[in-house]
Amino acid sequence: MPRERLINAGRIVVKLGSNVITAQNSLNMDVIESISFQISKLMDKGIEVLLVSSGAMAAGIRKMGLPGRPEEIPKRQAISAIGQSGLMNAYEKVFDRFDKKVAQILLTSEDLDNRKRYLNARNSLHTLMEWKVLPIINENDTIMVEEIKLGDNDNLAAMITLLMDADFLFILTDIEGLYNKDPRIHPDARLIENVTSFKPEIEDYAGDIPGTLGTGGMLSKIQAARKVTSAGIPMIVAKGDTPDILLKLMDDTKAHGTYFTPKEKKMASRKCWIAYTLKPRGRIIIDDGAANAVVNNGKSLLPSGIVDVDGEFGQGAAVSFENTSEKSLGIGLVNYTASDIRLIKGLKSFQIESCLGGKHYDEVIHRDNLVVNSELL
C-alpha cells in the first residue's frame, strides 16, 4: 500500500455500514463512540472528513419496538424517517463530547443527476468543511422511489468521494476486507490485501459475500471501488469495529483490510459525473463506422452514424449509446431531444438546419460530454 497516499490525505470519505453500526436491530453505541472519537482525532489533525452513515432503519426499528425490518416500502420509509432523527441525535451527542459539530445531509439521485444541484451540493459540503462541521450523509429513504434511488450507501459513498475530489474512500464493514470466499462460513478463506485490477474472479469472490441488514454486500463495495479508482482515488475496505481502525489505517505501516489501487490516469471530474452518477434516460443505436470513430478514435457522435433511438428524453439528458448488436459502448449528454434525433438520424451535420429549422450543434453528443466503456476498465 503506498503509504504516502495515506500520509498526505487531506480529505477522506468514511462509509460506516449497517452491519457495523447496528447490533440486534439497534444502534451499536460502542462503535458510534469509537468511530466518532477517531474522526474527531483526524479532524484535529486538519484532515477533512465526510461521513456516509447507515443505521437509520435500525434506529427506527428500535424506537418503534419492531421485531425486524418491514417488508412494505411505505413502512420502510416511515421507519427510516423515525430512525434518522435518532441516528443524528446519537451522533450529535457523541461528537459534542469532542467539541465537534455535525450536519445532516440527505440526498437522492435527483440531487446528483442535475448538474446545477450537483454543484450546489458540493458547495454546501465545502462550506460545512470550511466551518469545521462534519457532514453526515445518507440517502433520503423517506421520499425514495425507484426512479430516484441511489442504490445503497456504498454507491453513495463513491459518489460523494467523486463529488468532493476526496483523497481516499474508507468503507468500514463487518469483515476485514475482500476474501476469496465468505470468511463467516469458510475458515480457510483468504484475505485479498491488494486489488490492482477488476478481473472476473474479483466480482465472483464478492458475489459470494452478501450483506445482512444493509442493502449492499461485498459486490456493491467492488462496484464502488471501480468508480473511485477510475478517478485515481484509492479505496480501502476494512473491519469497522477493529479498535482504532481509522487511526491505524492513517498511521500504521502494517496493512489493514483490502486496498484498491487507483488508476494512474485520473478521469476528469465531469466525465466521472457522467459515467457514474447519471442514469441513462434512453438509448441511441449507432452503426459500425460511428462506433469505431467514437470508441477508438476519440470523435464526437454525429447524426450520420445514428440508426435508431429508443425512449423519450430531452436536450441535455444522459443517454447510452450501443452498436447494432445492442452492445453498450458508453454514455453521454445529448444536444438534441429524442424526437429531433429521430428526424436527423442518418443526416450529415450540414443538413440539420434544413431539417429542424435551426441548428445549435453539429454533434448529437460532443466528445467532451461522453464516456466510452473502455475508459472505465
Structural summary, described in words:
The protein has 377 residues and is an alpha/beta fold. It folds into two domains: 3-272, Carbamate kinase; 280-376, Archaeosine Trna-guanine Transglycosylase, Chain: A, domain 4, CATH 2.30.130.10. It has 15 helices and 13 strands. The strands form two sheets. The chain has an eight-stranded mixed β-sheet with strand order 3-4-2-1-5-7-8-6, sandwiched between helices. A five-stranded mixed β-sheet has the order 10-9-11-12-13, sandwiched between helices. Strand 11 (318-322) and strand 12 (328-333) form a beta hairpin. The longest helix is centred in the first third of the chain and has 25 residues, at 73-97. The radius of gyration is 22 Å and the shape is elongated.
Number of helices: 15
Domains (count): 2
CATH fold-level name of the largest domain: Carbamate kinase
Q: Roughly how many Å apart are the termini? A: 21 Å
CATH level 1 class label of the largest domain = Alpha Beta
Can you count the beta strands? 13
What level of helicity do the residues show?
25-40%
* Helix/strand class: alpha/beta
Binned strand content: 15-25%
Mean pLDDT: 86
